[in-house]
Specification:
The chain contains no helices and 11 strands. It has strands spanning 3-7, 10-12, 18-25, 33-39, 46-51, 58-60, 68-73, 78-83, 92-99, 103-105, 109-113. The strands form 2 sheets. Strands 2, 4, 5, 6, 9, 10 and 11 form a 7-stranded mixed beta sheet that branches. A 4-stranded antiparallel beta sheet has the order 1-3-8-7, with no helix packed on it. It is globular, with a radius of gyration of 13 Å. The protein is mainly beta. A hairpin with a 6-residue loop joins strand 4 (33-39) and strand 5 (46-51).
């Protein structure tokens, strides 16, 4: 069955960097639009960044523009989120999502930005 598995989260100091990965299986990854979402405690889940199936088109939330970069490797069924200049307000559980005819979600990975 379809599966998305995130990794790469952790504890980082403000100003630091992390790289999240999302490995997909069980569906044609290269045909799906992929996105990263995040959910902080007490807040709604929000879109962080999205990328088109072939990788040529990306979009970002205003709060992460110029700090985060989304990318994908269709040969390896993997999506990435490079996060630089991290802020405490970036603390959240980060989820990957795949959308086409169906929608799939990963289980999430915790990112904590704190000194």
């Amino acid at each position: 069955q379809a599966q998305l598995v995130e990794s790469g989260g952790g504890l980082v100091q403000p100003g630091g960097s992390l790289r999240l990965s999302c490995v997909a299986s069980g569906f044609p990854f290269s045909m799906y639009r992929m996105s990263w979402y995040r959910q902080a405690p007490g807040k709604e889940r929000e879109l962080v960044a999205g990328i088109s199936p072939a990788g040529g088109g990306t979009n970002y939330a205003d709060s992460v523009k110029d700090r985060f970069t989304i990318s994908r490797d269709n040969a390896k069924n993997t999506m990435f989120l490079q996060m630089n200049s991290l802020k405490p307000e970036d603390t959240a559980v980060y989820y990957c999502q795949a959308v086409r005819s169906k929608t799939y979600w990963g289980q999430g990975t915790q990112v904590t930005v704190s000194s």
